[in-house]
Structures are given as C-alpha cells and as structure tokens.
UniProtKB/TrEMBL annotation:
Residues spanning the membrane: none
InterPro entries, per database record: Transposase_17, Transposase_17_sf
Biological process according to GO: DNA transposition
Entry protein name: IS200/IS605 family transposase
Organism: Streptomyces acidicola
Limits of the Transposase IS200-like domain: 18-138
SUPFAM superfamilies linked: Transposase IS200-like (SSF143422)
Domain of life from the UniProt record: Bacteria
GO molecular function: DNA binding; transposase activity
Length: 142
C-alpha cells in the first residue's frame, strides 16, 4: 500500500522534501482606491499566473473586487513568500500601468500601484488543534 501522501494530488515531492504549502494573499492598491474593473482583474490574474509559473508555484485561485485582490498560492519550500509577493506586486503593477494607463491614472498617481503592505496566511491541511493533539500523542517509548 502506498503512503497516504502519494494519494493526495496537493502533496508534492522534491528530491529531499514532501510538502503541501498554501498561502492566502490579499493585496490592496495604494490608498485603497478602486482601480479594478473586470477586464483589469482578468489581466491581473493572467500576469500573476505567469509570475507564479516563473517561481515554480501554482496560482490555485484568484479573485478580487474594485479595491483588492485575493490569491491562493501553492508553493514549494524553497520559495521565500516575501520574494514571491514582491514579484507578483512589481510585475503586475508595471504591466497594468503599461496596458491600462489612462484608467489607472484616474485612481492612482505617482509611481505606486500597490500598498506596500499585504495580508498572508498559511492555509490548508488539518486545523491547528488537530496537529497539536497529534504531536502531543507522539510519545517516546520508555
């Protein structure tokens, strides 16, 4: 019988690691202004999918409203989440400003597109209480 992790498609293997790391990210534009239309959100998702592919990560889910976007990213342990976020925000800001200059200028001015802050939460897998209970039950033999 195969180990349980081999049956779960969300669990990935590297040469020396077995992992499933997911992060929920939320980005807001500078001053929480609302520059996003359906067309801009669609293009933002395409750009962010390309950036994720460059980092060997997967953009599992993307959605947004006029003043923020949500991402669910599946990433390997070798990826520093802060570097991924920097690239996602930097590349998307540059591309969206190039492709929608007049619209973006109505909402944002100067060189900034995204707020410098962001929300990140690890997610997926068992709830923390279950993991704590599992670890507590891993008693060493006497």
């Amino acid at each position: 019988m195969s180990p349980r992790w081999e049956l779960n498609p969300n669990i990935r293997r590297g040469r020396t690691v077995v992992y499933t790391l997911h992060a929920h990210l939320v980005f807001t534009p500078k001053y929480r202004r609302g520059p996003f239309t359906d067309e801009i959100l669609q293009r933002c998702e395409e750009v962010m999918r390309d950036v994720c592919a460059d980092f060997n990560t997967e953009l599992v889910e993307f959605n947004g409203e006029s003043d923020h976007v949500h991402l669910l990213v599946h990433y390997p342990p070798k990826v520093a989440l802060s570097r991924l976020v920097g690239s996602l925000k930097g590349v998307s800001a540059r591309r969206l400003r190039q492709e929608f200059p007049a619209h973006i200028r109505k909402y944002l001015w100067g060189d900034h597109f995204w707020s410098p802050s962001y929300f990140a939460a690890s997610c997926g897998g068992a709830p923390l209480e279950i993991i704590k209970e599992y670890i507590e039950n891993q008693k060493r033999p006497d």
